[in-house]
Amino acid sequence: MEYIFHILIIVSIYGILALAQNLVMGQTGLLSAAGAAFYGIGAYGAAILATKFGINIFFSLIFVPILTGMIALVVGTSFARFRDDYFMLATLGFLMIFNTVARNWEEFTGGAYGIAGISKPYIFGFKLETPFSFFFLAFTVFLCILTLHYFISRSSFGRVLNAIREDEDALSIFGYQTSIYKLLAFALGAAFSAFAGVLFASYLTFIDTKLFTVNESILLWAMIILGGIGRNRGALIGALFLITIPEILRFAGFPVELAGLMRQCIYGLLLIFLMLYRPRGILGKYNL
Amino acid sequence: MKHFGGVNAVDHLSIGIQEGQITGLVGPNGSGKTTLINLLSGFFSHDNGEILFSGAGRKKIFPWENQIYDITRTFQQIRLFEQMSVLDNILVILTERHPFLSLFERHTSYHLKQAEDILKRVDLHEKRFDNAFDISYGQRKLLEIARVLAMNTNIILFDEPFAGLFPEVIKKIEAIIKELRKEGKTIILVEHNMTIIRSLCDHLIVLDAGKLLAQGKPEEVLSEKIVLEAYLGE
Predict the structure, then answer these.
(1) What domain count does chain A have?
(2) Domain boundary among B102, B125, B152
(3) For residue A159, which residues of chain B lie inside 8 Å, CB to CB?
(4) What is the mean pLDDT of residues A96-125?
């Protein structure tokens, strides 16, 4: 049973990440490779606060996403001039800078050794140590983000984001300062990713830089492309599918050392297959 | 003035547009008509000179300032929000412009009625739930016109709205433009069809190689020798 709850926790965390990526890439059309960076900032933020200052993860769940959103506002402002491929390269550059800083700022991040001993969240003297209790927290946060995402998508703001994805220049003619909308979507996506990062660090109790590389950003891309660009249900199906595949492979009898490699191959093959036969993904309404 | 590399697309051009009139903008291909529309709508920034709106000059106009200057436009190559519904193409024009306030706004029955009335006016009501890329070329042109109606600005720039259309759609758009003139809108119309120019325009400006070639009443301008030469050759 603990194993099932472990899977559900990971699916909840990646569900949050997929929703964040969907807001930025699926709805707004920003090809951001920075998803893993903001996920990492959230994780490192919670880990540093917990191990250096003894701060409860519940506090980090409020403070760290706000801080990450503010970092994204600063970073996003300098990226405002970039579009499409150039935006993707700029965000990729940001991810590389984040990784380099995390690997070398040993005093705070533990460098290549990472940060161990991150505490579990506690409330009224009760520590969420069991997978079941942690799943309750992760799923609650996931539901909150899903509700917030739904609220954004159904608002006029959400419709403007869709129009930016379709034709930003044409939209600006109608009196929209599109750069502000893009910046806000980028910051909201970063804050959502940070929620996932805080949960992940607390659940695993150990993090290092290898967890937040470009592979992680590609996995997030694969999730929303597989499920369907621009649709929350699609993003969640993509997350569920890509998280459970390695587990299914494990039960299919693949050796543990081969399972990881097989997973990467399957991700790659899926993306090629989808681009060839179903570029909108499983539930998608939109093309990239 | 606007140049692209060594080419002066708009060259020392000084013109005035009368309020409440339809001003036609004609000229051979490459004469700078669309560039002028792009400059007036802030799509391009001009290299030199000034654009005056009701006497107030601006060195640079940003596209999003069109709402402040009360301007909207259509595009020569249709630019819709392709993967959004016909209705959403209109609703996005009708709603809140402030990013923070728009987060808390949902389209109301008032917005919906307004959008549906506009779509009825251009005969697109039945297509309101279709995606913009699924409708025909003529309907796409009409949807661009519908977005202009939704903006409800005083200055409207039409860039070849009749190009490639069937006669019945041309009649429909002509009727809408006439209605807009009745409402007192100031219209600039880029067009190659001289029958339409004669029927709609109060004033005509002819451009050639980015320069002003002639201007005045359409009948007079279109019979001038230099205009005929520019269009038909020597």
Answers:
(1) 1
(2) B152
(3) 84, 88, 91-92, 95, 107
(4) 91
